[in-house]
Amino acid sequence: MINFTVGPVQMDEETRELGKEQIPYFRTPEFSSIMKENESLLCKFFDAPEGSRLVFMTGSGTASMEGGVMNFFSKDDKVLVVNGGSFGHRLVELCQIHEIPFTEIKLDYGKPLTKEHLAQFEGKGYTGFLVQLCETSTGVLYDMNMIGDFCQRNDIFLFVDAVSGFMADYFSMKEMHVNAAITGSQKALALPPSMSFTVLDKKAIERCQKINVKSLYFNYPAYLKDGQRGQTPFTPAVGTLLQLNEKLKRIEAGGGIKNQNKLARERAKYFRSSIKDLPFKLFSDEKDSSNCVTALCPTKEGVNAHRIFEIIKDEYKIWICPNGGDMAEKVFRVGHIGSISNEEIDTLTAAFRDLVKRGLL
Ligand SMILES: *Cc1c(COP(=O)(O)O)cnc(C)c1O
Predict the structure, then answer these.
(1) Which InterPro entries match (predicted)?
(2) 65 and 181 together in one domain
(3) Tell me: the pLDDT tens digits for 91-105?
(4) Residue 180's domain spans which residues?
(5) CB–CB of 280/299 below 8 Å?
(6) pTM, full prediction
(7) Ligand 1 — pocket residues by CB below 6 A?
(8) How many C-beta atoms lie closer than 10 Å to residue 292's C-beta?
């Protein structure tokens, strides 16, 4: 199978090699020093300000979305949440469950957030802002400089779900005034699912100390305290963290995060230019699109996007990424993260062309 989903994505040979090793015991100085290195490289790749720290959460990306909502916000906050797709909707649900007072900025799915959307919230006493970097369900990349400036001007704490956008798209916590940001192991880092990571700047560290979260497993101050000696309060996905260490060092040696952005950009461009003659409409404008994923709507009358996913899987041995909810029958996605070659992209576009020939697309 070739995997064009947005996670778990195709892993490198080096990552897979490590996956067959025994899992070592982890309460050791040797493992602690690997964790310290993981922390410092991830902070560097997020371009986090001096004094930033990392929380290593064992749990998928959603665990760190929920952990962030619980540890950075309380009933005394008033937050803005951008809902431009299923992941934005998840942030809304988290604010509801944890009773964080919020205002939802609901976008037409596939459309960007604009200055006009934000203008009405200027000077209105908001204290938090929750948004994705890339809304993975639609492929929209939000204008994080615009959002960061808005938050800076209004003294708003900015929490960014960069789970899918990290590494694929340019991202700098420093430049974009981001206080806390998350990613997950099975997205662009191309590791097995199991871990998610939150980078906290000094404000975020202070905030979680004051909130006094009512949770044992999601208690960020406990993670930060144990993290000082390269440990976690509970048993982490040790194997994934060793694969992470190898991957981060390989990224660093291969030109750093800048080169990763470039590779994702080139893959996305190559794919988008090779489907120009096919019966698809881009779900989001190319100028608003992330390098992480392309969301496509089949344009021919009666073609069901989910059915295309099934045929491509069963008859061509390729996974593309189906959409859920309201978008399921209209939209599917092709991911550009993980270890994917141009030859594999050619194989996928050849499969689409074959479907056209068969009258199915
Ligand atoms: C994948 C993803 C998540 C996390 O999903 P999990 O299934 O919990 O790993 C969160 N946010 C975004 C934007 C994502 O793409």
Answers:
(1) Aminotrans_V_dom, PyrdxlP-dep_Trfase, PyrdxlP-dep_Trfase_major, PyrdxlP-dep_Trfase_small, SP_NH2Trfase/AEP_transaminase
(2) yes
(3) 999 999 999 999 999
(4) 13-253
(5) yes
(6) 0.98
(7) 7, 60-62, 65, 87, 132, 136, 161, 163-164, 184, 187
(8) 30
